[in-house]
Amino acid sequence: MDVNEFDYELPEELIAQDPLEDRASSRLLILDKETGQLQHRTFRDIREEIHPGDCLVINNTRVIPARLYGTREGTGALVEVLLLKRIGGDLWETLVRPGKKARPGMVLDFGGQMKGTVEDIVEDGNRRIRFSYEGIFEEILDRLGEMPLPPYITHKLKDRERYQTVYAKYDGSAAAPTAGLHFTQELLEEIRAKGVRIAEITLHVGLGTFRPVKVDKVEEHHMHSEFYQVSEEAADLVNRTRAEGGRIIAVGTTSCRTLESASDEAGVLHAGSGNTDIFIYPGYQFKIVDALITNFHLPKSTLMMLVSALAGKDNIMHAYQEAIRERYRVFSFGDAMFIR
Q1: Is the pLDDT assigned to residue 102 strictly greater than 80?
Q2: Fewer CB within 10 Å of terminal CB in the chain, N or C?
Q3: Are strands 170-173 and 61-63 parallel, antiparallel or unpaired?
Q4: Average pLDDT over residues 16-29
């Protein structure tokens, strides 16, 4: 399958640079995956689309201020470090810019409050860095770090919490599960009051999901692994919903990938934790996810391939053309789509 099949023309002015003041006031494009029919709504109307007996699955990961700026010891040259994944203790897999001179043994200084030593070069040129400091790492990171907004967002974020979901709990992500940014606590309570189950899972989002696909053939692309965790309670809610005939509605591609990774061929979700590098593209048979709330994704991205696998590539490309014609806002702070 050719990667170019997932390309589309996007006017740059449609890339949302700032979050809306009211999270739930974004637009919502509803796509029926069976008929291809489209409806234009407001995100708050999602409560009418989720029915009693359904289960909404949300990703409760929390974005850390993962972008650090430091200097190279000896030269004072500026270096940017993006924390991608904690290997263990104070050892992290990172993305370093500029990376060519970031060789094993190089020491970085972060404002005199923390140092980092490059220990290894791994896949895709990422660096493993061991940090040393006095005090609590999370507190130092909170002082020194910046939220790792995607490169297509050029405006400065005034409030860090706007790049977090209202249900974010567990630190670990280098990017937000952005489909969840549209929910408010009030909207979630209204949905719960209808008799909808809400299951919380965790997947710490790395940059692998967002990396450009550099191969020509979809099947040759390799995803980076990300840590996930499914509790007994979440597994029970999802499995009970399926047994009783309700729908499993994933909020975001991260929730979708977690559910599909942790379920067996019979569509039973299993509690536990691990790392997943699941790559979902057309031809994939979904085991557990019935519907998906998602944002609008970059051309030729693995996320375009995932939504195409669920809704059909022709339906997705038609929906994107309609969204562009109707001037929907796209990407992280943009509008939403409900694939039902």
Answers
A1: yes
A2: N
A3: parallel
A4: 97
